[in-house]
Each structure stands twice: as structure tokens, then as C-alpha cells.
Amino acid sequence: MPKAVFHYFPVKALGEPIRLLLSYGGQEFEDDRVPFDKWPEFKSKTPFGQMPVLELNGKVYAQSVAISRYLGRKYGLAGADIEEDFLIDQYVDFVNDIRTQAAAAHYEPDAALRAKKHEENVKNVYPVLLGKLEEIIRRNNGHLVSGKVSGHTIGVHSHFLGACGLVEENSIARYEEKIRAKKPGSEDP
Fold first, then answer.
1. pLDDT-above-90 percentage for the chain
2. Between 15 and which of 8, 60, 74, 189 could a Cys-Cys bridge form, CB atoms 3.0 to 4.6 Å apart?
3. Who contacts 42 (Cβ-Cβ below 8 Å, separation ≥6)?
4. CA-CA distance, 162 to 16, in Å (whole number)?
């Protein structure tokens, strides 16, 4: 299997779902965690002046969701048909909307306003939106779509829940360990 290089900052955020998908697929990869102080010089080497970036088979891939979709298809985690692909994309967009709201609170420069936004999210926003996700997952035997793991199921767990601080880090770590230990062709974690 060809070597891959994955470039992202030294944080989980948008990069961790991709790292998990690469591990799930059994892909060896160099995890290039670009230090923040080195980002200005690395930026011009990326397709859009952004990360994450994945180098694989002499090609350069950009945009976190597009990379995740690609890897999901590559490793057999895409929908079985166009309808399942739509549902997966729909839930990914829903989760990204929630993540965007969480990020707005997290990166608010005013500490008092940041605390207020976070409190509002925890009390009034996350319970409603997570309730919707829980109902979807309940209807689908513990998964987002058709009772099976998809590439974005991995992303939803790692990326969204970790970013929002809604679960403790060690609970995400346990799930990540299962994904990293999974071998292609074995049963889903």
C-alpha cells in the first residue's frame, strides 16, 4: 500500500476524522502536524491555502469533508446507493452546522460572551440537536444510516462531539482505539 502524508495542525479538530479513516482503512501514513508558527510558510504549498491536506498516490487532496467522503468510499464506508449517500451527506451537513455554532462560541474573543454562548449551547441548543441525532441513531440500530458504520459516522463521533466538549476525551479515545484496531474486512467496530 502506498505511503500517504496527512498535513494538519497539531490538534484533532478537522483532522482527526481523516486520521481515523486512514487507520480504519489500514493505510500507513505520516501524520505531519504542522506547528502553528510554520503554517505561514506551508500555506502556499496547499491547494486552497487551507488544511487539512492529504497526499496519496502522487495526488494532493484538500477539504476535510471531501477527503472524508473519498476515504469513506475507498474503504467501503459509503452508502449502498444514492439514497444512502444523500442521508449520509445530509447528516454530515447537519453536524457541520452544529459544529459551526460550537466553534463560534469557542473562538469568541470576549471571555464573558464566550461563556454565555457556551452556556446557551449546553442548556438550550445541544440537547435539542443531539436529541435529533439520537433519534436518527436509534432508528438505525446505533448508526446514522442503515445500521452500519459509514465514513462520516466516524467523523460525527470524533469531530463533532470532541469539538463541542460534550463528552469526556477518554470516551472518544475508547472509540478511536476500536477504529484504529479495526482491520479491513473484519466486522464493524
1. 32
2. 8
3. 7, 34
4. 10
Closest alpha carbon to 19 in 42, 174, 85, 28: 28
Q: Is the pLDDT of residue 185 over 50?
A: no
64/17 Cα distance (integer angstroms): 9
pLDDT at residue 111 above 50?
Answer: yes
Ranges for all domains in the chain classified under CATH 1.20.1050.10: 82-181
Pick the CATH number of 4-74 from 3.40.718.10, 3.30.450.20, 3.40.30.10, 3.20.20.140: 3.40.30.10
146 near 80, Cβ under 8 Å?
yes
Contacts of 94 by beta carbon, 8 Å cutoff, 6+ apart? 129, 132, 133
Residue 161, number of CB atoms within 10 A of its CB: 20
Residue 95 in grid coordinates: 453536524
Answer left, alpha or beta for residue 50, where phi above 0 means left and psi between -120 and 50 means alpha.
beta
Instruction: Enter the pTM of the model.
Output: 0.75
| Average pLDDT value for residue range 45-73 | 94
What is the CATH code of the structural domain delimited by 82-181?
Answer: 1.20.1050.10
Q: Which candidate, 7, 48, 2, places its Cα nearest to that of 25?
A: 2
C-alpha cell at position 31: 501524520
Amino acid at 42: F
